[in-house]
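$ run holo --ligand "carba-nicotinamide-adenine-dinucleotide" --emit tokens
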Amino acid sequence: MAGAGISTPSGIPDFRSPGSGLYSNLEQYDIPYPEAIFELGYFFVNPKPFFTLAKELYPGNYRPNSAHYFLRLLHDKGLLLRPYTQNIDGLERVAGIPPDRLVEAHGTFATATCTVCQRNFPGEDFRGDVMGDRIPRCPVCTGVVKPDIVFFGEQLPQRFLLHLTDFPMADLLFVIGTSLEVEPFASLAGAVRSSVPRVLINRELVGPFAWQQRHNDVAQLGDVVGGVEKLVELLGWKKEMQTLIQKEKEKVGRGSDPQLPPQPLRSLCWS
Ligand code: CNA
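-- output --
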């Protein structure tokens, strides 16, 4: 189970970290209250703030870090049953985890849907509009096209239901970079069998790790990258991890996405 904390080392602010979190840096979005950015009612009146955020998070602006590549390594080794992420930045995909292995519980920018005729489109079709600060319109009915990000009150993607079979089957649960405050995602932490060790890698204790610990829970507190790297070292996978990251960096270096201007990550931060 992953959250915004696995992507802060890639330069994407989380919601709740005081000072750097998105909720502390909303002035430029000109919205009445933080949650408005993900509210359908507000979106239909004024979609601009959401698309300003979409421009930041559209696939291609940010690169995965060791936490994402740790998931990829587990996948390559056949050890990853399924990553459940709350993130909408798509960095699990960029790290090479196939979308059909993933549950992106709060949606994705990789696909989009017309709010009027409900036609589905690849998110890529609207890159030009989003980057050019234009509200994307359906080529068929001209309705506003909304990336498939789950707004407040919207249903989670069908794939979220996979948890019903996945969690009882797991024999280890990693919880990485999340405050475990958003439901129903947060409750998944309690859905593994009680004999299953749960490993938290996060800045602070969260959810059941704080208030309902099990005897076999483990917490590695501190930065996610440091925590993951420590674990990788204990597992004896350091070299493999370095090779994987190097290989992926070279792919990016060869310019796998020619539409992207080269840009320093930090220059894209909201704060
Ligand atoms: P959150 O509520 O902002 O919590 C993040 C957690 O990660 C907190 O406990 C932080 O202390 C911790 N954290 C942040 N950075 C680090 C770090 N470098 N090392 C260790 N711990 C760290 O975010 P959640 O994901 O729990 O909340 C769910 C929301 C946030 C979902 O709806 C997401 O869509 C949404 N979100 C996603 C992104 C993204 O896609 N990258 C960014 C911001 C918010």
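-- notes --
The CA atoms of residues 35 and 152 lie 8 Å apart.
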